Amino acid sequence: MSAPSGPKPPSPWKMLYAMIWLAFVQILLVVPPLAGVTGFVFLHVVLGIAILALAHMDAARLKRMAIPDRIRRIARSTAQLASAQVVLGIYLFLALDLEPGWGLPGASVVLFLHLVVALAIFSQASSTATAYDMWEEREFEHADAAGGAPKA
Questions:
Q1: 144 exposed, middle or buried (CB, 10 Å; 0-12, 13-18, 19+)?
Q2: Mean per-residue pLDDT of the chain
């Protein structure tokens, strides 16, 4: 009789694609006209924390797998960007929500950097998910000799 095992973790590709959609929704929450809706900033923060956790979990999980190094590097850089994003977000929260005259300098520059890093996370997550998915499906092993699309 075998020992009962715990719940099976989700497939790596599902977690990688979930990261893309979390990043997409998080970006949408702060663009007009949604930016001023009460509660969306809180939801933006919650999604940011989820993205941070998922990015680091993905990077750690992929690090242990026998996959191409490029996929691991992209996942690791996504986790690093997510960590930097938290620092930028905390700065923005403090700079934009303090009493007038107490605000921290450079909030507009940090806001721009926060957007750039968010778009980079979205791009990196997309790249990681697609690369992993293609590797897992062995798509390149089935390509024809002329370099065409894989045969179904």
A1: exposed
A2: 85
10, 11, 44, 63 from 7: Cα distances, Å: 9, 12, 29, 21
pTM greater than 0.90 (yes/no): no
Residues 20, 109: Cα–Cα separation, whole Å: 25
3-state secondary structure of 150: strand
Other residues' Cβ atoms within 10 Å of the Cβ of residue 124: 23
Q: Per-residue pLDDT tens for 16-53?
A: 999 999 999 999 988 887 777 778 888 999 999 999 99
Of 26, 58, 59, give the one whose Cα is nearest residue 43.
26
* Cβ neighbours for 134, distance < 8 A, ≥ 6 positions apart: 140
